Amino acid sequence: MNETSATPTDDHRRQAWREIMGNDPPEDLSDLYLQFTSDLFVNVWTRPGLSRRDRRLITLTAVATRGSPEALPHHIKAALQLGDLTREELSEWVVHLAHYAGWPASAEAYIALQVAQAAS
Rounded to an integer, what distance in angstroms lies between the CA atom of residue 10 and that of residue 102? Predict the structure, then answer.
């Protein structure tokens, strides 16, 4: 689904979520908020023009700099699990993040990466 005006079906939402995050989406996608959020999520992640790897780097950086410690481990795990980024690339991302976003943001990212690496 590459057209942002299209409304994904539940099956498409679930399949896209698995391809992007490497796990199952929230169980009840009939909830209006989750439906709206997942539609936007699917439409943003499946647009043409950027690879999933590019989108992953942008998302990781945005999540890290916004101070979203709950979401960061999920995106790091997905990046590793789906092969979007290697451990070495993520380690380099953390170093680069430190320079541009500051040590607190990179420290959270470093911790999330360590946890993800230990879990895999």
Answer: 39
